[in-house]
Please model this.
Amino acid sequence: MGIHIEELVGIIERSVAGEGLSATLKVDLGSDGVVCINGSKVSREDAPADNVLTTSLDVFEEICRGRTDPVQAYYRGRLALVGSQRVAMQLGMLIESANGGCGRMRRFTRDDPVADIAAALNETGSAIVEKCVPDELADRVAAELRPHFDRFGHEYFADFEGYKTLRLSEILGRSRASADLIGEPLTLAVIDEILLPHCINYRIGSCTAIEILPGETAQRLHRDDGIYPISIQGMELQVSAMWALDDFTLENGATHVVPGSHQGPSRSVLEEPVPTAQATMPKGSLLLYLGSVLHGGGANRTDEPRMGLINTYSLGWLRQEENHYLAIPREIADTYPDHIRKLMGYEPHGPILGSYPGTL
Model:
């Protein structure tokens, strides 16, 4: 046999040796036997379990070697699951952690091929481009937003948004330098790969500055495209770009992401806790994630705030989440270059949809 099951069992043993699974799980491999996991103990002997994964030895090898995870395999019809999806997700995250990974969240530099970044987005739902822009640009955006945070940031306090998180909209009206992030060429090239197969052009859906203050708790996991009442298999409605205006760390609230969740069921807020990967990254870095990916801001357990800028890009035939025509005065919008004005929505989708004499 080409696959040595004992080697795969060894991978599982190393993966669960520390934390262990929160519930019993059995992997049923048919004629190749079973693998039973009880906490941090792994056995080849059959036993009852709260959760059962039924799959082939080939798929089990892909899971153990980090080429896929149980939840992705489930949504692709490559394994059957009886029990909690949370436990299956926990197993995948423990395997990834044991292999030295970060929840299948791949990291790139701005010199890496656009196609590779887009492929990672399609595969796992998220990707990080480290140091995508210079610190000076991140600092300039943060400085331009500072007085607005101090004056208006508290107006968005709410149960979902948090009561120790400052937020701002109307970003292009508050920070001139933010246009260099919103229209950043590498970012747009990746967005092209994801959205343009489904539209003629795309635009900014929303643009929000977020500052998580000390003492804030973790945000509920949610999907950004949950604002739309449709879900079309194989079509992403939007892509989100989170810019780190400070260093994002585990302690100060780096964004939580559930890798592979874009292949999950209906778009909604998730109340049940599930294992996540946190997007730790230095200032000037970019976290890209699909609109259908579960994510949420982290808890800030430090004494310093953490600032980021999140903008979404949505299909050109969708209604924008933020009405940029009203949010940004026309006299300000007209001072931006054409590619930024087009992203704001001053361009029809095709020759008719959204046309107006003042559009480009």
About this structure: The chain has a mean pLDDT of 89. The chain is about 30% helix and 20% strand.
